[in-house]
Specification:
mainly alpha, transmembrane helix, transmembrane, 0% strand, elongated, membrane, 145 residues
């Protein structure tokens, strides 16, 4: 529940501030995902926000600087929430691991009666079977409680 609320707030910040604080959801992505691409997007969005405000400030109403500044801020206002939601809602490699199978993303230990070696597809089938067995055991335990 709190993650959904956090996503809503972080997606709304750039729109509510007309792009001036579009860097806030990008900072969240960069800190959570720790990827170079997210840090580059953070720098680009922050530069566009600062540049937009700087261009609008000293210029006259109908100058090309003011128009460019407004375009930068409106672009940031549209881009930041779209990029944030696209990246934050995408499943991460660490989310694909089978629950209870050690490190996230690791292949499960060999199960009796299930193929443990061979083609990558067979490994994936073994992962799915192990996950379904674990889920089935969990649901049975919940029914007994």
């Amino acid at each position: 529940m709190w993650r959904v609320l956090l996503r809503v707030v972080l997606a709304a910040v750039p729109m509510l501030t007309i792009g001036m604080l579009g860097w806030i959801p990008m900072l969240y992505l960069a800190l959570v995902h720790r990827r170079g691409r997210d840090w580059l997007v953070l720098v680009a969005v922050a530069a566009a926000s600062i540049g937009g405000v700087a261009l609008i400030g000293p210029s006259g109403k109908n100058s090309w600087q003011a128009v460019t500044g407004v375009v930068l801020l409106l672009g940031t206002m549209a881009f930041a929430p779209a990029y944030f939601l696209a990246v934050d809602l995408r499943p991460r490699p660490s989310d694909r691991g089978v629950p209870g199978q050690g490190t996230p993303g690791a292949l499960p230990a060999a199960q009796p009666g299930y193929p443990s070696a061979g083609l990558p597809r067979q490994d994936r089938i073994g992962q799915v079977r192990a996950g379904l067995d674990e889920l089935s055991a969990y649901l049975e335990q919940q029914e007994r409680s």
